[in-house]
Amino acid sequence: MGRWEPNARGRLAEAALELYGERGYEQTTVAEIAKRAGLTERTFFRHYADKREVLFDGSVALQELFVKAVTEAPESAAPIDAIAAGLEAVSKVFVGRREHSRQRQAVIVANAELQERELIKLASMSAGLADALRRRGVAEPAASLTAEAGLAVFKVGFELWIAASEEREMAQVMRESLDELKAVTASG
Amino acid sequence: MGRWEPNARGRLAEAALELYGERGYEQTTVAEIAKRAGLTERTFFRHYADKREVLFDGSVALQELFVKAVTEAPESAAPIDAIAAGLEAVSKVFVGRREHSRQRQAVIVANAELQERELIKLASMSAGLADALRRRGVAEPAASLTAEAGLAVFKVGFELWIAASEEREMAQVMRESLDELKAVTASG
DNA sequence: ACACCTGATGTCAGTTACTGTCATCGCGTA
DNA sequence: TACGCGATGACAGTAACTGACATCAGGTGT
After folding, report:
1. What residue stretches are annotated with the HTH tetR-type domain (chains A, B) (predicted)?
2. Would the CB atoms of B156 and A144 count as touching at under 8 Å?
């Protein structure tokens, strides 16, 4: 366990998820995470800005994927359909990762600080999507509202997918959730 | 400024908003807030769970009002219309408070930790609204999606209202934002 | 008038997240 | 083989937050 074992960052993320799951987020100290990863507390903070961030390593890549899919949707697609294309793209990333997602989500819902961090990541995604829509020529407040609606579908759809049986595909759940949103907003 | 001046809690909230505005959230210590309120750091933490919570004193009451209005909407009202009734009720609370809201929002958007706290308060509202809708007989995931849609309207509408001129009423902004959401989700 | 009770506050010590600074290590390169 | 450089360790310090206990002001009962 020398100073130069490879992938220090990944070892820290793995150790953190394990410990948060075993004894809870609050009952875990950063020093313990670092020790399990064969590193020191100071090095933890060189890789992650704080004790929460270690659980959200992939969020930037996920947002970029989402935004990219919206940006590259056909010009003719309506804003909500561009968002739908983004949801399709994002869903592919989660194929085969349901169990890992469940474990991670269980840790997050057990602690308010982690929920806060999750929410600001989702808000960042919403802002990125609104940007992408604006670049497609969508005006405000339509762009922000469409982005928020898309995130609502993602949030609700994600929870449904986690709770669902193994055969149920995320992309399908997302499509159905979006249809449901369209239904409930289609009054008056 | 003796030990028993009245309204210690209110004095702390006022001092905190002032200091966060003057020198920023991170550059303000809890000891400084307490000192300006004529109290000690320890007493601050008896009134507020942490350094962020002091800015969110009214959030529980606001949520209760929102939920109450949704609950008491006519039985015949569609879910989205019950939410609309809630938005109307909430809007009344903000009459005459635009300047205060601007000041507070400026402090919040300037700091990520405060944004996180704001987001979890809004998420709590969404959960409360979904509950209320379920009690009205709305099934899942329609209840959660309608609640999330309502919160999206509130978020976007609130920012529009803050940026708008003095004559523009929040209730009107909320109505227009909801109509816009209905428009963007009314495709295919 | 007096002792007593109670809730709010003060005091103090302790833990832990997080930061700044400098020393040290292992590896590649000239 | 000497040197440079990025990653890590070591250490001290700040501030958010907590627990335990003392103290104070005001009300209550006698």
Report:
1. 6-66
2. yes
Residue nearest to nucleotide C26 (CA to C1'): A4
Report how many helices (DSSP H) and strands (DSSP E) chain A contains, helices first.
9, 0
Nucleotide nearest to A48 (CA to C1'): C18
**pLDDT per position as a tens digit, B46-85:** 999 999 999 999 999 999 999 999 999 999 999 999 999 9
Q: Which of residues 127-186 of A touch B (CB under 8 A)?
A: 141-142, 144-146, 148-149, 151-153, 155-156, 160, 177, 180-186
Give domain status of residue B63, yes or no.
Answer: yes
What is the spatial distance between Cα B158 and Cα B66, in angstroms, rounded to a whole number?
Answer: 14
CA angle A162, A165, A170 (to 5 degrees): 55
- Decide if pLDDT at B5 tops 90: no
Looking up residue B123, the CATH number of its domain turns out to be: 1.10.357.10
Within this chain, do residues A102 and A131 fall inside the same structural domain, yes or no?
A: yes
Q: Which domain holds residue B158?
A: 58-184
